[in-house]
Structures are given as C-alpha cells and as structure tokens.
C-alpha cells in the first residue's frame, strides 16, 4: 500500500530531501543575499521576468544559494516542478515559477530567528510595501510554509488547520487584510508554527522545549488525552520532559514543563520525583514491580530526573526521594539550583559584550540570578554543544542531553558561547566539562577556560562530532559520534581519568609588515602545526570542501580525497627543496635539513593528524622506559635517541618530523609509513624565505616570509576515556 499522491504534484522523494538537506547544511549564504542578485542591477537580473523565473533562472538561484557548480540536473528539475503550484500552472507562463515563493521556501529552511523569518516572508509578499497583506497573499505564504514543512517531514494534515486557525485569529476585525504587526504577533504565539520555523528556545522555567516527532507506537496527547492519529503518529514532544501533544493542542495551554530550579535556598537539598503522565506502556512499575498496562489512554507516570516509571496510583503512594538514577553523578537537579534576589548582573563575557539572550539559562524569568548548591558527592557536568558540528548531529545531541540532564546545565554554543556556562559553574569546587563538537570547538572552550581566570580548572571530556577530531581520538573518545547511547557515554565520563595536555603559543611575525596575506587562524596549537606539502594538501582539501560540499559527506570519502590529493603530482611542486626556503632552530640548535629532500615539516603535540594518521609512529614502550619528562633534555636531535623516544601529550615537548613528498604523504595517511623524526624540543623558531602553505590544527592558510616562534603556553586538564569502554567507539 502506498501513500496517496496528488497526481498534479510531482513530489520530491525522500532521497531528494536528504540530498537537499546536505546542501543546505553547508551553505553559508542567506536567501536575501541571493534575491538581491535578481534585482535590476544584480548579476542574475536578466533571468527574472517580472515576478517569475524560468527553470534556468531557478537553477542559477540554487547554484548561487548553495554555492555549488554541479547541482544535479534531475533534482533541480523536480524541485522546480514542486514550485509550479496550481496558480502558476494556470498562468500563461506555466514554464515559470514565482521568485518569491522560492525565496520564501528556502528562507523558512535556513537558520535564523522565527521573528525574522516571519518578517522576511511578509515583506516578500507585500509587493507595494504598504504594510498589509490581503488574504490571498497570506494563503501563499502559508502554502510555502506547508511546502517547507513537508521537506522537514511534517505531516501537514495536522499543521494546515493550525495555520488556518491562526489566520482567523490574526484578522480579528475580519478586514481581510493583515498588518505586519498582526502577522508577527500571531506567528510568535503559535507553538507549532514556531517549532516549524526553528525557534531557538530561550529556557524559561515552565516552557517546554518543543520539537516535531513521529512515533512508531500508539501515543496519547497530554492535553486532550486522545491518541495521536494519522499515518505517522506525529506530535510535538518536549525534549526535556517528553510531554507530548497534538500540534493543535500545543496552543491550548498545556501544563508547564518540569521545574529546573527550586524557589528559594531553603528548598535546596530536598530530592523529589517529578512525574509526567503517559507513555509507560508495558514497562515495569518501580514500586509494585508489576507491568504498567495500557487502557487506551495516558498510562503511568515517569520521573523526569531518575526516569523510573510507576502506575498512576503508585506514584501517589509512598513519596520516595528521587535518586536521579544512573546519571546521578552528572545531574544538576532542580533542588541544587536556587535564585538569589539581586539585580541581574551584566556579566562580561570573553571577547564579546553581553547580549540580551545569552545568560537566560542562568536567570529566572523575573531577572533573579540562579546559583548552584551542588548535591554532595556528585560531579555536575557542564555541557557545551556546538549545534553546527557534524551536520544535524549537534542538534540531536543537544536535545538528548537536555533530556538526560537538567537543561540548565546544557549550553548551546550558538547562544552566547561558553561564557554563560562557565560563569554559572565557576564557584563549584568539583565538576566536569563535556564539549560536544569538533577539535576546533574543544580549542574554543580551552581558550575560554584560560581567559575566565577560574580558581578551579575543571577537567574536559570530549564527545566528538563531525570528522577529523584528532584530539578526541588521542583521548580515546573516538573519531566521531555515530549515534551511540548517550547515557553509556556519560557513564564512561564518570569512569574517565585526568591527564594534562600541553598547549603551545604560536607567534607569526611577517617579514614585510605591509604585505597583505591570509590571517593566521589560531594563536594556540593544541594538535599540530605544519608547513609545506602536508599543509598544501590541507589547503586544497579545505578549498575543495568549501566548493563541493556534496563530495564530502562521509568520513570514508574524506579519507579518499586526502589520498587523491596526496598522490597528485602537481601538489608538491610548490614545496620542492623546502630546506632552501626555511630554517628551523630548536632551543638554539639548528636542524640540519640538507641531507634529505624534505617537502614538508610537521610539528606535533598529539599523536594523531588528519583523522588518525600517526606521523611520529609507534615507539616500543620498553625502549622509552627510564626517561621521565623531568630528566629529558630540552631538545633531542640525535637520530639514535629519537628512535627510542615516545610521543607524549603532557611532556612539555613538541615532536618535529620531516615529510619527504607527496607519495610518502599518501602512505602516511593510509598508515603504511610514518615520517622522518627530526627533533623533540621544548621551543622552536622557524624562519621562512618564501610564501608557503601552513596549517594549525587542520586550518590551512598561505603565509608570506616570516619568523614563527612556538613556545609552551600551559597545560589543560583533559579527561581520557577508560581503556575498556562500554560504548561502541571503534578505534578507527
Ligand atoms: Zn490533543
Ligand atoms: Zn517539557
Ligand atoms: Zn525521580
Ligand atoms: Zn505500581
């Protein structure tokens, strides 16, 4: 049995959506920028015919917006057809679509605040700019909203009546027209619409963190108590407490979300379950140990904090203390957070002035400042999630951690960076940090910890998102999160051990200060630094990924691309005879580079590069024994001693290796070989005589002649995953 299809609409298939989604994830332009190109003086003006564009113009819109040269022709065709709605099909130019429909659709899908999206859509359709839309124009916006909702896998049969209701409510005077103010006001009070527009929720107590969800089993609405119906059993579900409602019921004053803090200091330290009704079918009751059976309705209660389930009547009896369950060590329960009555402070964040929304997690809706009174013998976890890491994975991880922990301890780095989280936790003596993101995100947090001048420097664990992630690999957290059970990973964090990791300052001083060149990406090295052939590969790789995102979707492909670059003939040409273009001094000792034909130099802090390649190579443990970091000299250049010297990320030393050429790079990337060991040193000065490609922690740039100084900065406290992890992280 197949889903009913409307014959006149050539629908996009699910694979199309996924493909389009991947393109949109990588695009950095905004629809309104592309739209400008279709203005009279724009680059694409000649493709616009009045209000419309033809298929060629549509193709150019996509190419410009998504920044790709070779967008698949068939996908472009199907997308184009999906914009040929009934209205334009009847129009004379049936071979064209309305530019504003296209713009409205894509702007609904891009990142941004709902208020801005509502206003953008309004202005798009308010042709004469008189500030009011008639009902047919509003219908067209709604049509594009439904279109976007389909793309996001919503069952629009549920959304349509909600939007219709909203329109009736907005046009209170039945004038048939809607003003901008009415439109935005109406939209901002419509919960399902806000969820569709990607509302970035600012956490207020009692406000659910809604998202659209499909269920594969019968689920009942917490508001009207009836079942979620329809083919895909769709509803809005709160990420924090799992309260679930029909789209239409979300506007009908649902019960508030769970409390995330207590009212006053005297209420702290009193652990109590927080019960939410429903969806406990066939699970065992924690009190009477009997199965919780469904009687066609909301069944049982589950506790938001410890996640135990009980019969409704069992939840009322014997109020026991909530233990917070198996994640007790990490959870900051509501009874550990209380407000203090004082003026909300304007906390100055690192580097950026305080904006209005960034410390909402730390204050009550009426402006009282929240403080932590931690539960004894726990190590509350301060979580930072970079939602932009690893495609949509960052958002998924954010949501799941908001459920497993208290949303007040889970910070979205897109909302004001790490400042608010660090300042909320800064008076705690014993806590841990979890960074969910790539190596770059980890570096960001370590910098913020440096700058925050904290009395206690908390240890940092990593949940690696995206690809690469060499630092996470070295700390045994794996190269990339693949959707494993997060509570198991949290338990691994509980069993992890602390380790100090060196961090290095890098200073690049150009010879000619007036010459303009690429900016140096970082001032600190956490992972590695390289010059020459390796960096030029990274540089090309970086440029290619920007231009052709579709080719870089899987980790496997990333590896293949490296290999392809590494073995290409032309690459190494610019780095031939590198030893003539630079000199290296390690603690005053010049390295002799003349004997080998080096095309690249890499300086390593950690034993992994470009997603798991080990350039220094293994050193047998037995050989390295006997030399502790105290006894080790400031610099070692003797090849015989280097041979038995192991790499270590907390020895206050850097490893210097030489790379002989492109072919060798290919072998190193595929693990067939390691590089030539040149030195182990606590300080380096490099002087270059010509422009060379360089990279720090995977970020490449082209650097004109310069002097580079690398010195030890400090050591960061990191968490190393337990050797035998309960998770499924494979080493590679
Ligand atoms: Zn309902
Ligand atoms: Zn909730
Ligand atoms: Zn509980
Ligand atoms: Zn029971």
Distance between termini? 42 Å
In CATH, the architecture of the largest domain is Sandwich
Residues in helices, as a percent range: 25-40%
Q: Domain count, please report it.
A: 3
Number of H/I helices: 23
Family: Belongs to the eukaryotic diacylglycerol kinase family.
Pathway: Glycerolipid metabolism; Lipid metabolism; glycerolipid metabolism
Domain DAGKc: 376-510
Keywords: Acetylation, ATP-binding, Calcium, Cytoplasm, Kinase, Lipid metabolism, Metal-binding, Nucleotide-binding, Repeat, Transferase, Zinc, Zinc-finger
Write a brief caption for the model.
The chain is built from 23 helices and 30 strands. The protein is of the alpha+beta class. The protein has three domains: 14-196, Diacylglycerol kinase alpha (Recoverin, domain 1, Orthogonal Bundle); 334-344 and 353-501, Rossmann fold (3-Layer(aba) Sandwich); 518-703, Tumour Suppressor Smad4 (Sandwich), CATH 2.60.200.
Keywords:
732 residues, alpha+beta, Recoverin, domain 1, Rossmann fold, Tumour Suppressor Smad4, 3 domains, 6-stranded antiparallel sheet, 23 helices, 30 strands, 19% strand, globular, disordered N terminus, binds zinc ion, ATP binding
Describe this entry's structure for a reader:
- This protein has three domains: 183 residues, Diacylglycerol kinase alpha (Recoverin, domain 1, Orthogonal Bundle), CATH 1.10.238; 160 residues, Rossmann fold; 186 residues, Tumour Suppressor Smad4, CATH 2.60.200.40.
- Helix content is 30%, strand content 19%.
- Helix 15 links the parallel strand 16 and strand 17.
- Helix 8 packs antiparallel against helix 9.
- The protein is globular.
- It has a seven-stranded antiparallel sheet.
- The protein has 23 helices and 30 strands.
- The protein is α+β, with helices and mostly antiparallel strands and 732 residues long.
- Bound molecules: zinc ion (ZN) (4 copies).
């Amino acid at each position: 049995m197949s889903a009913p299809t409307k014959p006149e609409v050539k629908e996009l298939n699910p694979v199309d959506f996924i493909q389009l989604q991947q393109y949109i994830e990588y695009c950095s332009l905004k629809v309104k920028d592309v739209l400008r190109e279709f203005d009279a003086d724009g680059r694409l003006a000649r493709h616009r015919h009045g209000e419309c564009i033809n298929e060629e113009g549509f193709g150019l819109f996509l190419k410009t917006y998504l920044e790709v040269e070779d967008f698949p022709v068939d996908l472009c065709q199907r997308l184009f057809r999906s914009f040929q709605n009934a209205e334009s099909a009847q129009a004379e130019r049936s071979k064209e679509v309305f530019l504003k429909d296209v713009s409205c659709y894509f702007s609904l899908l891009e990142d941004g605040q709902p208020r801005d999206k509502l206003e953008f859509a309004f202005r798009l359709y308010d042709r004469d700019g008189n500030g009011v839309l008639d009902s047919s124009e509003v219908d067209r916006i709604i049509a594009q909203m439904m279109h976007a909702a389909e793309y996001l896998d919503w069952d629009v049969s549920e959304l349509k009546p909600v939007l219709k209701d909203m329109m009736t409510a907005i046009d209170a005077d039945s004038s048939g027209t809607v003003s901008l103010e009415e439109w935005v006001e109406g939209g901002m009070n419509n919960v399902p619409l806000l969820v569709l527009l990607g509302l970035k929720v600012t956490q207020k107590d009692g406000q659910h963190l809604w998202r659209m969800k499909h269920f594969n089993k019968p689920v009942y609405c917490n508001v009207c108590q009836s079942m979620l119906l329809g083919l895909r059993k769709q509803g809005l579900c709160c990420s924090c407490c799992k309260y679930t409602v029909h789209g239409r019921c979300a506007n009908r004053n649902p019960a508030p979300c769970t409390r995330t803090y207590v009212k006053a200091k005297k209420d702290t330290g009193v652990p109590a379950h927080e019960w939410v009704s429903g969806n406990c079918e066939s699970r065992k009751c924690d009190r009477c140990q009997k199965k919780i059976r469904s009687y066609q309705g909301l069944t049982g209660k589950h506790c938001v904090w410890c996640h135990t389930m009980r019969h409704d009547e069992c939840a009322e009896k014997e109020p026991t203390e909530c233990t917070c369950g198996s994640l007790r060590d990490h959870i900051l329960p509501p009874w550990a957070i209380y407000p203090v009555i004082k003026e909300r402070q304007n906390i100055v964040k690192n580097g950026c002035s305080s904006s209005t929304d960034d410390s909402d997690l730390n204050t009550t809706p009426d402006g009282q400042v929240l403080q932590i009174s931690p539960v004894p013998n726990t190590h509350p976890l301060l979580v930072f999630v970079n939602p932009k890491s690893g495609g949509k994975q960052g958002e998924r991880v954010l949501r799941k951690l908001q459920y497993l922990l208290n949303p007040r301890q889970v910070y979205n780095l897109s909302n004001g960076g790490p400042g608010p989280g660090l300042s909320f936790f800064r008076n705690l003596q014993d806590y841990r940090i979890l960074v969910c993101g790539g190596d770059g995100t980890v570096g960001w947090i370590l910098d913020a910890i440096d700058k925050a001048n904290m009395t206690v420097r908390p240890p940092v664990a990593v949940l690696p998102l995206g690809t690469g992630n060499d630092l996470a690999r070295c700390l045994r957290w794996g190269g990339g999160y693949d959707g494993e059970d997060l509570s198991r990973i949290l338990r691994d964090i509980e069993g992890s051990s602390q380790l100090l990791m060196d961090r290095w300052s890098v200073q690049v001083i150009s010879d000619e200060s007036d010459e303009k060149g690429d900016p140096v990406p970082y001032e600190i090295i956490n992972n590695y630094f390289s010059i020459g052939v390796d960096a030029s590969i990274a540089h090309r790789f970086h440029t290619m990924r920007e231009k052709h995102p579709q080719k870089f979707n899987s980790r496997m492909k990333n590896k293949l691309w490296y290999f392809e670059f590494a073995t290409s003939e032309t690459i190494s040409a610019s780095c031939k005879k590198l030893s003539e273009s630079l000199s290296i001094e390690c603690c005053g000792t010049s390295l002799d580079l003349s004997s080998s034909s080096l095309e690249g130099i890499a300086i390593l802090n950690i034993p992994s590069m470009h997603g798991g390649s080990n350039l220094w190579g293994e050193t047998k443990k037995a050989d390295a024994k006997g030399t502790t970091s105290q006894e080790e000299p400031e610099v070692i250049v003797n090849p015989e001693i280097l041979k038995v010297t192991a790499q270590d990320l907390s020895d206050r030393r850097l490893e210097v290796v030489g790379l002989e050429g492109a072919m060798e790079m290919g072998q190193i990337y595929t693990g067939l070989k390691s590089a030539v060991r040149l030195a182990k040193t606590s300080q380096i000065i490099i002087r270059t005589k010509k422009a060379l490609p360089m990279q720090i922690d995977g970020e490449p740039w082209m650097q004109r002649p310069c002097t580079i100084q690398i010195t030890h900065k400090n050591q960061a406290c990191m968490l190393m995953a337990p050797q035998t992890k309960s998770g499924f992280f494979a080493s590679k």
